[in-house]
Structures are given as C-alpha cells and as structure tokens.
Amino acid sequence: MAQIKRRLSKTEQRRQTRNTDQSDDAGGWDHKLLEAGTPLWASNWLRLAVTLLAALLFTSAMTVNLAVSKQWTFGILCMVVAILLNRIRGRIITVSMVALSVFMSLRYLYWRLTQTLSFTTSLDMTFGCLLLLAEGYAVLMLLCSYFQTLWPLHRRPARLPADSSAWPTVDVYIPTFNEPLQVVRQSVLAATLLDWPADKLRVYVLDDGRRDEFRQFCEQAGVDYLTRPDNAHAKAGNLNAALSRTSGEYIAVFDCDHVTTRSFLQVCMGWFLKDPKMAMVQTPHVFYSPDPFERNLETFRKVPNEGDLFYGVLQNGNDLWNAAFFCGSCAVLRRSALEDVGGVATESVTEDALTALKMSMRGYNTAYLAIPQAAGLATESLGRHVGQRIRWARGMAEIFRRFNPLLIAGLTLPQRLCYLSAMMHFFFGLPRIVFLITPMAYLFFGAQVFHASALMVLAYVVPHLVISSVGASRIQGRFRHSFWSEVYETVLAWYVILPALQAVLFPGSKGFNVTSKGGVIRQSFLDWAMARPYIVLLLINLTGFMVGVAGLIRSPGWPEATSILFNLVWVTYNIMNLSAAAGVASESRQLRLAPRVQIELPAAVIHADGTRIDCQTSDYSHGGLGLVLPEGAPLPEHGDRITVAVLRDDYEDVFPAEVQVCRGRTIGVSFPTLTIAQERAWIGATFSRADSWIASWGRYRPDRPLRSLFEVLGIGMRGFGELFRHLFLGGRERLGRSPADPASDLGTKQS
Fold first, then answer.
1. Torsion over CA of 427, 432, 433 and 438, rounded to 10 degrees?
2. Which active-site residues does the annotation give?
C-alpha cells in the first residue's frame, strides 16, 4: 500500500501542477464576485433571466442563414478561435470550447433540417434521410459525450480505519467456465495475496465447467471451490448461486484472467465505510497483452486502445453524476445492496451494467476509482474480440428496450443521460455503414442527398467537424487519439448492428458467448470470414473512386466538379478506414501463451557454485523472466539450472530457474518446478505489486489531430498492402481462420 500511495502522491502532484490554471479559472470567478459584492447575482430570478437571454441569443445566432461567402468567413473565424483557445489551459477555456463546438454542430444540424431536404426523387429521399439520421445520431452522441466528460470527478480513495479489526468481511468471486487452468491459477493465487485480514477474506472459484483439475488446484491453493448443477443465466447465474452460499459483507468480483494487486481492497473499501449508501466501487480494466487492433496494427502502448476512453474518461464523468457502471470485474459490491436488487441481473447478457442500473434505480450510490488495481488478458483474435462486442451490443440493446433510462423511475436526469449514452453508443453500426456507402449514391446514380451546393455543404460541415475534433481531443486526448474511433467503428459496425437491432425489434434469448482467453495464433493469416464485409465495402468505395475520377476527366462544369471532388474526398477517407479494418483482420502470429510485461526491477542470478551476480529484470510473464546482466559478468548457457532472486521493498524472493535464451547480455529463464508457495511468491513479486499498472496506464503521447490523421492514413495504406499480399501473393492457404483456433470467431457459447 505504501508503494501505491507514493505513486499516487507523485501523480497527484503532477496533475495539480498541470491544472493550476484550471483551478484558477474554475474557482476564481465566484471568489471575485464575492469580493466585488454583487447581491443582485444572488437572485435566482436574475440568474434565470440571464440564462434565458443567453439561450435566446444562442438560438438566434444558431438559426441565422448566411450566404456561402459569409458562412465560410464565419466558419473560418470560429475554427481559428477554437484552435487558439486550445493552446490555453484552464477549465473555463475547455467549457468555452465545448460551447463553441455545440453551437457549430447544432447550427449545422439546423441548416441540414431547414435548407437541404428538398428531395425530387425517391432515391434522393432514401439516401438523404438515412444520412440525416446518421448525422443526427452523431451529433446526439457528441452532446452526450460532452455532458459526460466536461467535468470528470477524479475520485480519490477514502481512508480505512487504522484498526483493521473494524474492517468488514469480503468474499472474492472468480467465475470461470471453459478457460484453461493456466489462465485462472495466477488470478486465484493473486487473490490470496490481497492485503486484508486473513480471517475477514475468503476466495471462491466459481467453476461452471465443473472440472476436477480445478477442484484439486483449489485444495492446493487453500481457496474454496463452488459449482452448481446447471449453467442457467451463465455468469450472472454463477454469481447468484455463490451469493446464496457465502456470507461476506462485501463481494469482490474478478474475471478469471484478471490478476489483482495486493492493494485492491485497501484502495476500494474506504468508500463503503464512508458512505452507507455506497453499493459498488469499480476500478479500470487494463490489459497486459495487446488486443487484435494493437497487435495487428502494432500500436500496443503507442495509441490508446478501444477501451481506454471508457475507463480513462467516461467513467470519471459518469461518477460525477453518480452513474458509474459496474463492469463485471475488478469491482466490489455491497452484499445487502446486491440482494436488495435481486442479485446480479439476469434479464440481459450485459448483466453488470443492468445490475448497476438497478442499484441506481433503488437510490444507491456507485463510485469509480481511476486507479488500475488489476490487469488481464485481452482477446487474442479479431473473431473473439468481435464476438465479445456483439454480446455487449445485444445486451445494452436489451436493457434499452426493457429498462429505457428515459422512462424508468428512480433515476436523476443526469443518470438518465449517462445510461442513455452508454446504450445508444452500441447502435453506431448503422450510421457508420451509412457514412461508408452514401457517397456512392451520388457517384453511381447521381443522387442529390444534399439540396445545396458542395461549397455550401463544406462551409457548414467543415467547421462542425474541425471544432468538434479539437474539442474532443482536448478532453479525451490522453485516452483516445483523434480519428481512431472511426477505425474501431468501421471494424465492428457490420457485426454489432444486426444483434443490437434484433434485441430491440425481435427480443429473445440468444445464449451467452464466453470470451475465451489464453490462445495462440501459430501463423499469420487473413481472417477471411471476418474481413469479407470490409473487403466488399472497400471494393465498392474503390469503384466509386474510379467512377468519380472518370467524371472529373470528362471536364464537367464547376458546380458538378466541386460535388465530385467533395464525394471523392469522402470516399478517400472511407477507403482509409476500410483498409485499416482489413489490416486488423490480418492476424499476426502469436505463439506466447503467457504474454510478457515490461518492467525494470533489481534482481540477482545465483549460479550453482554460489556465485551471485546482481542484475536487472527486463520483463516477466507467468512462467518466465528476462534478465539483463552487467558487462563482464559470466553468462550462463542454455539449459543451465540457476537460482533467480527478485527484490521487492526490503526483502527478496528466490526461485529455481532454467535458462532458455541467451542473447548478448540478456537471458531468458523459465520456472518449470515451482511449488504452489513459490508460484504465489512469484506473483506477489510481479503481477501483484501495488504499483504494477499505475505507471503505464494512460501514458501515451498527447493527441495531435493532424498527426493522428496521418497515422490512420498510414495504417490504412499498410492494411491495403496486407490485403493485397494475402489475396494475391500469399496463396489461398493463408486465408480463413487460424488452424490453431478454429472456434475463434464468436467465442464459445454457454446457454
């Protein structure tokens, strides 16, 4: 715990230094007003009048129609103001930029609704209305995003009583179904190392696979093993079955691949003792292995991944409005509150989010602590990743249909908006597909989806896109780089939209897909089954591009030429994203069952003759360690049996090891003969360190929208090259699913 306090103290100092101007801006106005003595401003009537006047002026300015030249002038001026403001720190500046972004986006949407819908043919109307709905959805999600993220809470841990006898009892649940024991065992052993009184902590493995090897391991590890006669309601049913057979006051839940740090409970539990209405405390999900995007595009630890935005920004914003979500793992729940809402929800396959919603409906509080306290395995293949997102999309759509946050009782207005945003997000597939195919309506059929000139369209749309991009980058830049959302959505759109719509329009049980972890990919290949939709859309866009170029060669008049150029730029952007999607489907080889984590720790190598060489670690995994030896030190040879000491705090752990790799001054060792006690000590010295994940989480270079655009363009070119190589140079045997992972496309089904 001392390690994490030191790390948090340093982080807090950096944050306070970085946000000095923000504090001045955010807190200075009220102070100055009080000093100046403004009794009129204390009047609610005056505040209401000023608010109404501001709203009237906002609406009036938003609805003014300008000629194309004046709109361009106004738009350029607003973009320059936004870019200049973005160079100034301060919370008030951020609020001002968001206000400007909202103004320009609503102005664009108003113009679209009032000036561009005079359709003359059914084809124009069809594509025009689809595009308008897609744009309306995008603006709605932009507004919800601003609402959630404009003023994040950044909650800190609450202090526990000094007397540990006053600490409550905690049950740790680790549910599992079909995951291999090698994935689960380190999570279980890490849970036994939690810094909590031994008589107040019990660890339970909830095995829906009912496997004897798991039972035997639990006996060796000294933890409880629970099963049930059936697998009804999948993970939710598994947790509820354990709830009726255990008695701890609080329940900590970890997915079976998540390895907790020792400090997890000490970080989380203080808020339950401080707030009697606190029902759930959630911490981030971080991963020490790359997901398919990061591995196949080689962006691991370079570009924020798909989930970083939620855990790095959105959850902090939700927490301000008492709407932090339960995410199924790395969280603690109060038993009495969980029982009060009927246990873990079973009405949706996203049981975690629905459980949090029910708690909010009952008036309980939820909290989010943005302090990584556990790490797990990311999905290895694109098929498994997509299968997981399909389940999330279907589950959130089920919740939207049965527990519409705008209609149910018990929520505050901000809570309704936070939950609505989360549910509506998973309908992004349809708008994304509309954006990918709409320019072809003009290039192929001459459909006029905008009843306006291309110059007028650009005069409205460019400021809207540029200012919203700058505003989003300012708020989200640490955890989401510009333009990468389009890549993620392009990859997932085709697969998530049908399950989401089906769950709303044709509800019914479709089973539960367990996202398997811990597999390997023995050779690089193009996952043809997953890439087929992107390839079809890519071919359509490439054809549209050639048709557009041919149209320009015919030397049309200026209005038609500008329309063609407008659509060609749009198609080029689509091609970039679709090529990047194809790059994600080009699976890179992954042979390691145990991914390595980069870390530098003091260590020592002890030879058989007793010679000790002090050195440093370079990385570690569940079953191995990389060591960098000093110059001049004698190097062991492959196959040598040595002893490795790893230092932590003021003592060291010693492990028998075997040398597997020797490269220069770096050696790689494995631990083939560890006992349960030694394996527990190894996890304590590595994965379970209190500061294991804090230093690396969110440590990406700052976002620069233009630089990110060129990065995505480069990824798109690379993806196009990978697609060409696999289709025309690699041979047909390199297409299809991985031979080592035949069921990887949609996970493993558990009914």
1. 130
2. 208, 352
Cα-based angle 146, 423, 364 (whole degrees, multiple of 5): 85
Facing residues of 376 across strands? Answer: 287
**How far is residue 407's CA from residue 416's CA, in Å, rounded to a whole number?**
9
SS3 of residue 117 by DSSP: coil
Domain 164-380 has CATH 3.30.565.10: no
> Order of strands across the sheet with 170-176?
224-226, 201-207, 170-176, 250-253, 331-334, 278-282, 365-368
Domain ranges of the chain: 164-380, 600-685
Distances (CA, A) of 693 to 259, 372, 687, 740: 11, 6, 9, 31
Q: What's the rounded mean pLDDT across residues 175-194?
A: 95
Side-chain-facing half-sphere of 683: CA atoms under 13 Å: 26
- Residue 358 and residue 364: Cα distance in Å, rounded? 9
Cα(310)–Cα(293) distance, rounded to whole angstroms? Answer: 17
Most confident of 44-48, 460-464, 727-731: 460-464
Residue 695 main-chain phi, psi, to 5 deg: -65, -35
Q: Which helix (H) or strand (E) holds 26?
A: helix 20-36
562 token code pair: 């500008």
- Of the chain, the end-to-end C-alpha distance in Å amounts to 41
- Please report how many Cα atoms fall inside a 13 Å half-sphere around the Cα of residue 531, on the Cβ side: 28
DSSP 512-559: EEE---S--B-S-EE-HHHHHHHHHHHHHHHHHHHHHHHHHHT---HH
How many other C-beta atoms can be found within 10 angstroms of the C-beta atom of residue 2? 10
Tokens 């102070």 found at: 31
Domain range 600-685, CATH architecture? Beta Barrel (2.40)
Query: What percent of the chain has pLDDT above 70?
Result: 87
Going by C-beta distance under 8 Å and a sequence separation of 6 or more, which residues neighbour residue 575? 538, 541, 542, 545, 716, 720
DSSP-derived 3-state class of residue 188: helix
How far apart CA 519 and CA 595 sit, in angstroms, is: 11
Distance CA 409, CA 5 (A): 40
Average the pLDDT over 464-483 and give the result.
Answer: 93
- Whether 463 and 684 have beta carbons less than 8 Å apart is answered as no
- Tens digit of pLDDT for each residue in 107-149? 999 999 999 998 989 999 999 999 999 999 999 999 999 999 9
What's at 630, amino acid-wise?
P
**Cα(633)–Cα(612) distance, rounded to whole angstroms?**
10
- Amino acid at site 613: I
Tell the residue number behind the tokens 């060609």, with chain if given.
Answer: 568
Question: What residue spans of 150-269 are helical by DSSP H?
Answer: 181-191, 212-221, 234-243, 264-268
d(CA 75, CA 78): 5
- Which residues are paired to 366 by β-bridges? 280
Task: Give the tokens for residue 361.
Answer: 């409906």
